Amino acid sequence: MAALFHARRAPVVVMGVAGCGKTTVGRYLADSLRVPFEEGDDFHPRRNVESMANHTPLDDRTRSPWLAAIAGRMRVAGAEEGLVITCSALRRIYRELLRVSRPDAFFVHLTLDQDEANSRVAHRRSHYMPASLVASQFEDLEPLEDDEAGMTIDATLPAERIVAEIQTELARRT
């Protein structure tokens, strides 16, 4: 238990393309670690949400204020509080921007193929991100590299198994 308590103090960023299950896994992981959960989509400026709802993908310029807001939340998450936050973090430069605020951040990249992501997004209710933008996310995606603190896991596994594997990796790193 002591190892898990220590491991949970670094913020965990659950990342990946739309439809990979960031919110589901993030909430479950946060509950299991007993730390706050933040939905990264809630940090988007209104104009970003409107752009995506109108089938316009975001670019580096439009993602910048969103990433800054997430980084700000990560910065104020104290070591005692811990945090699980979702963020697509598609490009390495975006992850590096987040690491500026918290160099100890741990990234969990949920992976799935484009067809599965399209299917999941097309069947979501009450979300502004249309399936038409999934391809643009795959175009921007730069998977985690070996020198980045994090892990990659198959997003088609059951959420319980994904969270168990994340917990095992976090405990191993303490």
UniProtKB/TrEMBL annotation:
Which enzyme class? transferase
Reactions catalysed according to its record: D-gluconate + ATP = 6-phospho-D-gluconate + ADP + H(+)
Q: Which Pfam families match?
A: AAA_18 (PF13238)
Q: Does the keyword ATP-binding apply?
A: yes
Pathway annotation: Carbohydrate acid metabolism
**EC numbers, comma separated:** 2.7.1.12
Write down the Gene3D superfamilies for this protein, in alphabetical order: P-loop containing nucleotide triphosphate hydrolases
Q: Which domain of life is it from?
A: Bacteria
Which SUPFAM superfamilies does its entry note? Answer: P-loop containing nucleoside triphosphate hydrolases
InterPro entries associated with the record: P-loop_NTPase (IPR027417), Therm_gnt_kin (IPR006001)
Write the record's keywords in alphabetical order, separated by commas.
ATP-binding, Kinase, Nucleotide-binding, Transferase
Q: Which PANTHER family match?
A: GLUCONOKINASE-RELATED (PTHR43442)
What family is it from? Belongs to the gluconokinase GntK/GntV family.
Q: Give the protein name, as stated in the record.
A: Gluconokinase
What organism does this protein naturally occur in? Streptomyces incarnatus
